[in-house]
Amino acid sequence: xxxxxxxxxxxxTKVLIFLLTVAFIASLxxxxxxxxxxxxxxxxxxxxxxxxxxxxxxxxxxxxxxYKIALKHYPGHSNASCNLGNxxxxxxxxxxxxxxxxxxxxxxxxxxxxxxxxxxxxxEKMADYDKAIxxxxxxxxxxxxxxxxxxxxxxxxxxxxxRGIAYYNMGLAYRGKAVYMGEDTLTSVKxxxxxxxxxxxxxxxxxNNFDNTYNLAFTYHLLGDxxxxxxxxCDAINIKxxxxxxxxxxxxxxxxxxxxxEALEEFEKTTMLLDYYSNDDKTKYVFGIITEIKRRIINxxxxxxxxxxxxxxxxxxxxxxxxxxxxxxxxxxxxxxNELLKCNCRSKFENK
Length: 352
Fold this sequence. Notes:
Helix content: over 70%
Distance between the termini: 102 Å
Number of helices: 16
Low-confidence stretches: 149-154, 322-329, 331-335
Oligomer: single chain
Structural class: mainly alpha
Strand order of the largest sheet: 3-4-5
Mean pLDDT: 83
């Protein structure tokens, strides 16, 4: 009886093997295209891996060659297309970069990082603001699937950040359109207002972000909304006190508002930072403005103010150094220069 059972098992095994073989041969005939696709995908993945290795080693021409071979076999490999676009950007071949990014998005429309890169190149390198705004719009209007598994995986924060960055870049694109349309035209004002709206939306996602806050302040400034511009310049300076552009633009705003004492303080902070970064030409220019502001203050009869106040430009470059990311006075390590650089007149613009 045991022999018969073994014989039956052997026959059943052979029958199964035969049926599987026939099924495989039949699938080769009826699903030939599928097998060809898988074959090309395998070759594509192989060359993508070689391209990724070359990309990491900064052997960009080799990476381009490998990615191109990979994409001939497997055009839908979005990471390869996006990496290819990044390499073209480094070579300043922006048209090819756009083609590569668009190819990646053709197969992976929710590839938001790649879409962001496409928008940036369209706006900043090709001045195609309308198309860039469309790309940013797709990001902010997207509803990607988010997962939050504590200590393991969380894409909610990156999704939120991407939406905020897209709004910020949209603001830059609208401002670019406004500049292109010329100053003080109805069209330019319309786009500046759109830029302002985009920065305000970005604020909801990007907390304490210097770039967004500074550009919002600058846009308010261009729109002639001086009070809100002053508030945002103060916020930007308090986020990042050692950026001279923020102090300089704030000082110009204060000068135009005839707040000469406050303007003087901001211009002096500007010169201190310019001197530290060895920007002699701009330092001389700003010193000329300081002379004019001091003359204004004297004409206002406030000469005593000039005598009593501390001129922070008296701190030379040799007396200033960086300590743990902060500007400090070399001879007074306990004195944090960043505290001196912060905006101290914000209250004058509140509740107006």
